[in-house]
Amino acid sequence: MKKVEAIIKPFKLDAVKEAVTSLGVYGMTVTEVKGYGQQKGHTEQYRGAEFVVEFINKIKVEIVVSDAKVSPVVEAIRRTAMSNSIGDGKIFVSPLETAVRIRTGETGDAAL
User: Fold this and answer.
1) Which regions in the chain score pLDDT beneath 50?
2) Pairwise CA distance, residues 78 & 72, whole Å
3) What is the pLDDT of residue 42?
4) Pairing mode, strands 42-46 and 29-35
5) 2-111 belongs to which CATH class?
6) Are 3 and 91 in contact (CB under 8 A)?
7) Measured between alpha carbons, how far is 90 from 53 in angstroms, rounded to an integer?
8) What is the DSSP string of the chain?
């Protein structure tokens, strides 16, 4: 099993959800996060005053999948989250030792 974490632009969430669901992956955790990378924030104006926004609003999507589904899920996220502009985000894949479904006690892939 692997854990796929993607940091994406907020307006891309629905497209990513649809793409991943079309692959038969139905569970995901979504968190609103703030951060920066190469984008390094931006300047905004509010009531005539200019200020720097250092941390950009993003969405963190976490999905646990079997090893066989990692590549299709990563490609689906990459394809749908891409806008060809700086700040599109990142995808991280980590090994996951086990998963346990609390209700039934199922473990491993059966718990997904």
Assistant:
1) none
2) 10
3) 66
4) unpaired
5) alpha beta
6) no
7) 20
8) -EEEEEEE-GGGHHHHHHHHHTTT----EEEEEEE-STT--EEEEETTEEEEE-SEEEEEEEEEE-GGGHHHHHHHHHHHH--SSTT-EEEEEEE----B-TTT--BGGGG-
Angle between helices 13-21 and 70-81 (to 10 degrees): 150
User: Which pLDDT score is estimated for 73?
Assistant: 98
Place of tokens 């891309």: 12
Alpha-carbon separation of residue 73 from 18, 22, 64 (angstroms): 11, 10, 10
- Taking the C-alpha atoms of residue 20 and residue 103, their distance in angstroms, rounded to an integer, is 24
**pTM as predicted:** 0.86
The set of residues, in sequence order, having a beta carbon less than 8 Å from that of 74 and lying 6+ positions away, is 4, 91, 93
Query: Quick one: pLDDT at residue 112?
Result: 87
pLDDT value of residue 72: 98
